[in-house]
């Protein structure tokens, strides 16, 4: 009987540890983050930066930075490349809450940082960078 209880407890533990407690895009709000976002700097308001999907019809600009959120926690920061195109820097993202995202870049050229989601509505993402 003790062996049965032990095995049942172990099974429950293993089952619980394999359940999806993923903090990436587990909430509907964060699911909207998935995709590629480019900086609409014309729309910035103070320290709040505005991003739109890469399919948006942006006005002409000398270049746009941005980022890509994948559902599995992979992240790509899009910076202006020396040739004026975009250069991707790989990393990971993790939700600390529905409004706070931690970004870690693999190259470690800069420290981890956080993005506070000010709002996320129909193709407009507003964030504030938090150190």
CATH architecture: Beta Barrel
Radius of gyration: 19 Å
Tally of DSSP β-strands: 8
Estimate nothing, just give the exact number of structural domains.
Answer: 1
Largest sheet: 8 strands, antiparallel, barrel
Q: Name the strands of the widest sheet in spatial order.
A: 1-2-8-7-6-5-4-3
Signal peptide: 1-25
Protein name: Lipocalin-like domain-containing protein
Organism: Hymenobacter lucidus
Keywords: Signal
Task: Describe the protein.
A hairpin with a 7-residue loop joins strand 6 (100-105) and strand 7. The protein contains 2 helices and 8 strands, in the order H-H-E-E-E-E-E-E-E-E. Mean pLDDT is 83; it is low at 1-22. It has one domain (23-130): Lipocalin (Beta Barrel), CATH 2.40.128. The protein has helices at 2-18, 28-31, and strands at 35-39, 49-53, 66-69, 74-80, 86-97, 100-105, 113-121, 124-130. With 131 residues, it is of the alpha+beta class. The protein has an 8-stranded antiparallel barrel with strand order 1-2-8-7-6-5-4-3. Keywords: Signal. It comes from Hymenobacter lucidus. Residues 1-25 form the signal peptide.
Task: Name the descriptors.
131 residues, alpha+beta, Lipocalin, eight-stranded antiparallel barrel, 8 strands, 16% helix, globular
Summarize the structure.
This is Lipocalin-like domain-containing protein. By secondary structure, the protein is α+β, with helices and mostly antiparallel strands. The protein contains two helices and eight strands.
């Amino acid at each position: 009987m003790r062996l049965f209880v032990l095995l049942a407890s172990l099974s429950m533990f293993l089952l619980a540890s394999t359940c999806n407690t993923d903090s990436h895009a587990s909430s509907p709000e964060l699911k909207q983050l998935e995709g590629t976002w480019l900086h609409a700097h014309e729309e910035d308001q103070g320290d709040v930066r505005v991003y739109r999907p890469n399919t948006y019809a942006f006005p002409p600009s000398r270049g746009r930075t941005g980022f890509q959120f994948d559902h599995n926690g992979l992240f790509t920061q899009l910076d202006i490349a020396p040739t004026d195109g975009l250069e991707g820097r790989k990393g990971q993202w993790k939700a600390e809450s529905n409004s706070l995202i931690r970004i870690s870049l693999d190259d470690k050229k800069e420290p981890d940082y956080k993005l506070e989601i000010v709002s996320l509505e129909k193709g407009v993402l507003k964030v504030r960078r938090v150190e």
